[in-house]
Amino acid sequence: MQDKMAKASQILEQVFGYTRFRHHQYEVIETLLSGADALVLMPTGGGKSLCYQIPALVLDGVGVVISPLIALMQDQVSALHQLGVRAAFLNSSQTPQQQDEVRAALRAGQLDLLYISPERLMMESMLHLLSQVDVALFAIDEAHCVSQWGHDFRKEYKQLSILHQKFTDVPRLAVTATADQRTAKEIISELSLETARRFISSFDRSNIRYTISDEGAGRDRLWEFLAREHAQDSGIVYCLSRKKVEETAAWLTAKGRLALAYHAGLAPSMRQDHQARFLREENVIMVATIAFGMGVDKPDVRFVAHLNLPKSVESYTQETGRAGRDGLASNAWMHYGISDVVMQRKWLELSDAGELHKQVQGQKLERLLDLCEMTACRRQALLGYFGEVLDQPCGNCDNCLNPPDTWDAAHEAQLVLSAIYRTGQRFGAIYVCDVLLGKDDERIISNGHDQLQVFGMGKELSMVQWRAIVRQLTARGFIAVDAEGFNGLCLTAAARPILRGEQPVHLRKLSKKLTKTRAAKSKVPMDIAPDDEALWLALKAKRLELAKAQGLPPFVIFHDATLRQLASVKPSQLEQLDEISGIGAKKRTRYGPAFLEVIASFA
Ligand code: ADP
Ligand code: ZN
Predict the structure, then answer these.
(1) What is the pTM of this model?
(2) How many other C-beta atoms lie within 10 A of the C-beta of residue 352?
(3) Domain covering 406-508 in this structure, CATH number
(4) Ligand 1: which of 15, 49, 176, 558 to mutate, most ligand atoms within 8 Å of CB?
(5) Residue of the nearest CA to atom 14 in ligand 1?
(6) How many helices, marked H, and strands, marked E, lie in the chain?
(7) Span 500-520, pLDDT tens digits
(8) Other residues' Cβ atoms within 10 Å of the Cβ of residue 377
(9) How many whole angstroms separate alpha carbon 448 and alpha carbon 430?
(10) Which residues contact ligand 1 via a Cβ below 6 A?
(11) Separation CA 67–CA 6 (nearest Å)
C-alpha cells in the first residue's frame, strides 16, 4: 500500500505539477487503491477529478469515467493529453470509425482513462467489452444526476447499480458537488454504495466574495460592477427568462463587451458555438438562463452575476459556485427586485406540481430571501444553511466589508411579534401584515382579529416594508416558519425579550431610495505587482497563441494561477519550472521554452 501511495504522490508532482493533495484527495485515493468504494462530496473546484485520475494511473487497467456531459468530454480528454495521459472518450458525437479506434485501444490495454456517457456504458456490447478488459475503477461523475428530485436527473444513472453486480471486484467512486443529505442518501441507495467510505469536504469557497443588493436598477448596478471590478474578465450573467437573456446580451454588446447569449430556446448549434467560445476565448461574458453551467469546468470564471433571484439557496450556491474554480479571487454578485419574488411566487402558484412540492419550493424561496435581506455575514448563513458552522464572520462578503445601514426597529418588531402572538401563531406573513395594516378582510373579520389592539397599528409602513421586517426577523431567528404545515409564523424563545421591549432590534434600512454604496475597500486582489503587469499580459498572449494553434481552451495549457506565478517568480531555467504549481514534466518540456523566452524578453 505504501508503495502505491508513494506512486500516487509521484504522479501528483510529475504529471500534474502539484506539490500537495487537497481536501480528502489523499484519503480517497488510498481508499480506491485498497480496492474499496468511495463517495466524495467536494465543492466545485475542490479537485474531484484527481481523486480518480491518479488511482487510474497507479493501478493496472483502465479507469472508466461515467460523465453525463458529452459536450465536455473532448476538453477533459484534451487536457489529459496535454499531461501525457493516455485518455479517450466514447460517445455519440464520434464517427463509427473513431469509436472503433477507441475500442481497439481499449482492447489492447492502451488506455489509462476512458470517458463514457451512461447511455453508451449501458449498451450490452459495451458492458461485454469491458468485461473482457482490465478495469482499474469506475468513477461516476456528477453522481447527483441519479436523484429523481434534483434538476439534473438522468434516468440512465438509475441503472448504474449494475456495475456493482457485474464488476464485483472493481472499486467504484461517486463524486458530486451537490451537498445536501437527501441527495447523498439517494446516491448511496441507487448506486448500491452502502459500504462505501464517505468523504465530505467543507463547502466554503473562501475565494468567492458574496454581494447581494436590491437597490437601484439592476442593469446600471451590473454595469458599475463590471466596470469597477471586471473590465477584462470572463464571467456569467444569469437571468430568469430567455427574453431578458437576449436583451441583456445585446445591451452588453452595445456597451462594448463581448457578450453571448445561452438559453434552451436557441438552436443547439448556436448553444454549442457560444459555449465553445466561452471556453476558448478570453474575456467573454456568457448571459444565460440556468440552462447553462452544469459541468462547465472553466477554471477562470472570475464572476457570476445574477440579475434575478435564483430559486433557492441550493441553486444560488450551485450557480455562484461556478466562479473561481482555480481558487483565485472571484465575485458572486446579485441584484434582485421585489418583482422577482412576485413572479417566482406566481409561477409556483400556476405550476401543476403537487401541493407539497409547491410548499417546499415556496419555503426554499423564503430561505433565499432571508439570505438576501440579512445584515450579518452571508457566508456564515450560507454554510449554516447546509449545516456547516463558520466560527468567525468571513470578512469577504458585502455585509462584512460594508456593514449595512440599520435602523432601530424595536417598536415595529414588537408590533409584528405581538400580531403573530395575538392571532394564535398559525397564520402566514401576509395575514399578519394585513392585520397590522388594518385590512378590511373577510377572514380577518370572521376570526375576530379586527378587534385586536394591534389591528391597524402599522399603517405608517407599506405591505412591502412589513414583509421585509417579517423576513428579517425570521432570518434573525425571532420568528419560526412552520415548514411542515402552511407556513404559519410563530415566535421562538428568542422573541420574548423583544416583545417585552428589553432588547434592541436593528434591521437593515428599508428605504428604497438609492443610497450610495461605498466601494469595497479593496479591489479583487490580483496578486500581480504593477511592475509585472506587462509580463503577465505577454504570458497570456503567448498562452492564447499556443492554445489557438491547437484548437484548445487556453486554460488547458496553463491556468491563470500558473501564469501569475510565472509572472512573479520569473524563472529563467527549465528546472526552475518544477517549483511552479501546475507544471508537470510533460508541460515543462512542451511549453517551458516558449514561456521562458517571453520572460527573458522582459528581463
Ligand atoms: P472539481 O472538483 O470541480 O471537479 P477539478 O477536479 O476540476 O475540480 O479541479 C479544480 C482545479 O484544481 C483543477 O484545475 C485542478 O487541476 C486543480 N487541482 C486539483 N487538485 C489539486 C491539488 N492537489 N493542488 C493544486 N491544484 C489542484
Ligand atoms: Zn462575511
Answers:
(1) 0.76
(2) 6
(3) 1.10.10.10
(4) 49
(5) 326
(6) 26, 17
(7) 988 889 888 764 433 333 333
(8) 22
(9) 17
(10) 18, 20-22, 25, 42, 44-50, 297, 299, 325-326, 559, 581
(11) 29
DSSP string over 59-89: SSSEEEEE-S-HHHHHHHHHHHHHTT--EEE
Q: How far is the CA of 49 from the centre of ligand 1 (A)?
A: 7
User: Can you name the CATH fold of 530-601?
Assistant: DNA polymerase; domain 1 (1.10.150)
Q: Residues in the chain, how many?
A: 603
Provide the CATH number for the domain formed by 2-200 in this structure.
3.40.50.300
* Separation of alpha carbons 438 and 458, rounded Å: 8
| Topology (CATH) of 208-401 | Rossmann fold (3.40.50)
Block residue for cell numbers 509521484: 10
65, 116 contact by CB (below 8 A): yes
Q: In this structure, which ligand is nearest to the CA of 75? A: 1
Q: Please give the distance, rounded to the nearest whole angstrom, from the Cα atom of residue 218 to the centre of ligand 2.
A: 22
Q: Do domains 2-200 and 208-401 have the same CATH topology?
A: yes
Q: How far apart are CA 594 and CA 603, in angstroms?
A: 15
Between strands 406-408 and 506-508, the pairing is antiparallel
Q: How much is the pLDDT for 510? A: 62
- Taking 50 as the pLDDT cut, the residues of the chain under it are 511-525
Q: What is the pLDDT of residues 365-411, one digit of tens each?
A: 888 988 998 888 999 999 988 878 888 999 999 999 998 888 899 99
| Cα 238 to Cα 165: distance, rounded to the nearest angstrom | 42
Sketch the domain layout of the chain as residue ranges: 2-200, 208-401, 406-508, 530-601
Taking the CA of 559 as reference, the closest ligand is 1
